[in-house]
């Protein structure tokens, strides 16, 4: 009976991480360069202020992330600079209830708008294409 006397590896969790790395690790963006581009484009706010890619984030801070038509308002629970499985990424943040409600309402509005829009079952013929072209050029 041999006992394993090895000590477990210490889990090093940084106190603060760059916002672009955190967004990538939390799986808001597929690549770090996409996260960095979003931050540079003003799509990310940290505690109400526009962030730079090098801005550090810590647990307890609030992030506003605009991704496409969706706007996430999240509170950071933990930081990580390594991308892990989605289940681990979801433990890094908590979305505010108001944000969840707002995103649900917006998704419902988009769904209703998509249903009410006319959808053609075929391609426009030559006459219809000319009408479309005249309509678009007239505006």
Quick recap:
By secondary structure, this protein is an alpha+beta fold. It is 38% helix and 18% strand. Strand 2 and strand 3 (49-50) form a beta hairpin.
Describe this structure in words.
This protein is α+β, with helices and mostly antiparallel strands and 139 residues long. It has one domain (17-115): Structural Genomics Hypothetical 15.5 Kd Protein In mrcA-pckA Intergenic Region, Chain A, CATH 3.10.290. The chain has helices at residues 19-25, 32-40, 86-89, 97-116, 126-138, and strands at residues 17-18, 44-46, 49-50, 56-57, 62-67, 70-76, 93-95. Helix content is 38%, strand content 18%. Strands 3-2-5-6-7 form a 5-stranded antiparallel β-sheet. The protein has a two-stranded antiparallel ribbon with strand order 1-4. A hairpin with a 2-residue loop joins strand 2 and strand 3 (49-50). The protein is elongated, with a radius of gyration of 23 Å.
**Gyration radius, in Å:** 23 Å
Proportion in helices: 25-40%
- Tally of individual domains: 1
- N-C termini distance: 85 Å
The helix count comes to 5
State the secondary-structure class. alpha+beta
CATH superfamily membership, which one? RNA-binding S4 domain
Please outline the major beta sheet: 5 strands, antiparallel
Uncertain residue ranges: none
Q: Which outline best applies?
A: elongated
Judging by the overall fold, what is the CATH architecture? Roll
């Amino acid at each position: 009976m041999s006992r394993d006397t090895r000590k477990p590896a210490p889990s090093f969790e940084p106190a603060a991480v760059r916002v672009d790395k955190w967004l990538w690790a939390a799986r808001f963006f597929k690549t770090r360069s996409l996260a960095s581009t979003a931050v540079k484009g003003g799509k990310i706010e940290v505690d109400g202020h526009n962030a730079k890619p090098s801005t550090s984030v810590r647990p307890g801070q609030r992030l506003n992330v605009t991704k496409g038509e969706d706007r996430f308002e999240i509170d950071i629970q933990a930081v990580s600079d390594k991308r892990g499985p989605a289940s681990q990424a979801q433990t890094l943040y908590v979305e505010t209830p108001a944000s969840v409600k707002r995103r649900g309402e917006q998704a419902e509005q988009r769904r209703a708008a998509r249903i009410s829009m006319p959808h053609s079952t075929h391609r426009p013929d030559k006459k219809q294409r000319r009408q479309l072209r005249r309509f678009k050029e007239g505006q």
